[in-house]
Amino acid sequence: MNNFNLIIRSLFKKKENNIIKILSLGTGLAVGLIIISKVFFELSYDNFYPDSERIYLIQSVAKVGTAGNEETKEYVQVSGAIAPGMKAEVPEVESATRITYMGWKTPFYTPDKKYYTGTFIMADSCFFDVLPRPMIVGNAKEILARPLYALVSESIAQKMGGNVVGQSIQHESYPGRRITIGGIFKDVPENTHLKYDIVVSLVSIKNFSYDGSLDWLGNDRYLGYVKLMPGTDPASLAPAIRQMQERNQSMEDMKKAGIDLSYTLLPLEKLNSDNPEAKRMTLLLSAIAFALIFTSIMNYILILISTLVNRGKVISIYKCYGAEKKDISKLIFGETFFHLIISLVISILLIFCFRGTAEEILSVSVDSLFSLRTCLFLGIICILISLIIGFIPSYLFSRIPVASVFRNLTGTRRGWKMALLFFQLLTTTFLVTLLVIVSRQYDVLVNVDPGYNYEKLLYYRASGMNENERQKIIDELRALSEVEMIATADQLPFYSQSGNNVFLPNDERELFNIADLYGADENYLSLMKIPIIEGKGFDKETSNKGDVIVSRKFADKLSEIANWKDGAIGKDIRISEHDACRIVGVYNDIRIGSVSNEDRRPSAIFYSDKPAEFILIKMNELQSDNIQKVYDVLKKIFPEKDITLPIYKDSIVQIYYSSRQFLNAITIGGIVTLIITLIGLIGYTTHEVNRRRSEIAIRRVNGATISDILKLFVKDNLWIVFPALVCGGIAAAIAAAKWMEDFSEKTELSPLLFISCGTAVLVTVLSVVCLNCLYTANQNPVDTLKTD
Amino acid sequence: MIQIKDLKKVFRTEEVETVALNGISMHVTQGEFIAIMGPSGCGKSTLLNILGLLDNPTSGHYLLDGKEVGNLKEKERTQSRKGNIGFVFQSFNLIEEMTVFENVELPLTYLKVKAAERKKRVEETLHKMSISHRASHFPNQLSGGQQQRVAIARAVIANPKLILADEPTGNLDSKNGKDVMDLLTELNQEGATIVMVTHSQHDASFAHRTINLFDGQIITEVESKM
Question: Where are the transmembrane segments (chain A) (predicted)?
Fold first, then answer.
């Protein structure tokens, strides 16, 4: 007799609840495995590059200030000459390259005005020597050595019609500068810190902006990469790099300015995994995946063990006819393994069916998630699962005494069941509480006051346009009755801002670094409702070029350093990139960047008498009809352009996309875990109620009411539910605190929140227990005793 | 074949100690058909468990074919049971997921008999039990009488020296009960040793000897007049 046939035949046997067991295991595995794949994906960043373990990103380390009052700043941008300098002057550097971003998901167009979007970088000709991609057409080295030539990715080429070599394109921000496509490369995988679609030759840079590609200091817009000789310890290169600096950088001047600049090498493979946010996220996602898979396994075992009483007789019949413990173990292992295989098939189907949702939540394609390496790891996890779900039941089943063939099995294995139930409830409480905390924190993130008002606000990015074109947009939009106000600015506060240094006139010492918001017109402050607390804002009549308003933090810091007793208003200062300027006003600090990555530097806004790149449109009412009217105006002016007209609030929400993803992952994980736990609880109580049918009937005959019977079962479960709720709540508090570590604004983790979550889980659990018991408790006790 | 001397079986829980068998001594010779009778709780099933090597006695001696088997470990009991003892139960105890053929084949599987040989022996046995036409059916597709014939087929398929039957007609009507008793008698006439627990005086009349138990002790042993 083949065990396989038996397993198939028992698959639909009602008493064994196989379908419930398999479906819940399959669902848990689907969500759990996909989250594990995401974790693996995060940990596998950039390891697809050949010799990736020898590739490093150059990091600038600037120590600013005097001894004892020193501030260390680390950033990955370097000046143009650093990477090639290392190649030339540090013998252990095998090759080096540098890139600079030219536009993130930026529109570009062909001569026939067909618009596409892509991420542009500029890179030197040895880019693919360090970070190679397979070429489909063309020789990368030759193409990247030619001015105004570019390589495009395979997917961009396909969007543009296939073989696009020889065609020209124009970056939207740089109209009139034609870039010829010279080659096509295979798309960069998704698990990389450096994402790009179009690589423009770096020798073209002077056509687009200042050419600082050979500067040793300043213009630090480049990312520099080096590939070291095999066996080189990057730390051992510090003296050689220092000597390179001493030969090429004015160390004396830097010292006078109070700066000690050095360079370190960051391993490429650890750029993402060492990132604190990615680290936290992968840790929490791992915890969720573990909780989910653990709950699914516990649930499977719980339901399987619950059938022990029913199956005890069959097992003893086997034993009676010669089956040994190993035969029973083989039978149970075979059954659980087969169930696991079906569960895996179900999980694959679920992943396939909900592919779009999974990709949206995880921000990565399913194809990229399941690489060969990840699949191998998942395979190992599945083997471990099969061992766990096979071992515990087979151990318990093989110990069923053979004499049970003559009498009913009385052992309930209650200890096992309660332990399994405890862990299931713990993980459910953990995920439900964490879900509530993350939802509340997300609410804080997207709604917290940034210090300015962005209600009913749209913006349009007029990049690559001249002053007249921008003015035309402003004039036409102002004519719309739906528009309340228009302002322009060079930067929006939620972006990461460039830094510039503050100096006092006739003093070369760098005082501090600021987040530079660059220019804004006279309407900007009133449109954004940024209150001026000292001095005045900008106005067309009296404001001049060079007028600057500064944040409170800026004014306080500067007054303290310069020992200004009468405040900062009216004082002349110098700011790099702007030179001489005069402080005319002070505004309350506003949030620069995001709550999760707040730029806490002082900030400044300069008066601009010309329309700036971002056109801010304050609407009377933010309704779709009104937005459409604005869109129509822009489309009328630029019929050939792809007009994007974001709502400011949506852009704020978009910043917290990773938090939203995390929330979604927890929501799905929490709901699935809750369902699986409830299924396990139903299975457990059903078997308990059946096992105790006679007892219930006898109690009823002796005068117990239905509520007495329900109390009996509720009491039976309470002693396990309470500790599980407490442990789950504590685990959620620890995880939430870790997750919120870097947020500048945090939701309150009050005891009431934990009590509410625990109560919600408790009520759900007890409701399920009561409803499940009610049917048996309601039965005529005489009928029950008769059938038993 | 079976020698039992001063056999005791005591079940202990935390609070209660129950003496199920209290110093039983008896013997069964090869080819004998023994009936064990007595009221509920007198220790019949416990005695059958011990005879069937499903459980060990608390004390005393149990010699099967001259070998002491009263203190074997579970694994040894399993080995001793395999192919030597067949069981027939009141509630048939057929495995629901297995066909009639597979149920009967089960003991041979654990004896590692080759598939072709198994097939031959199962077919022969089913034919002998007049149930061949139901070979591919599942237990729930059979009548009670048919199910008990399958159970008997399973008990005898490995040609055991000893067949233990626990109220084999308890769940059957009189006609099917008679058929089962005729079958057991036929097996006994072919050489099988049978020990049967029963409440029925009529069924006991098929046996050579009837042992009456009460409170875990043998109170009478009566030879049949047949």
Answer: 20-41, 283-310, 331-358, 370-397, 418-438, 662-684, 718-740, 752-775
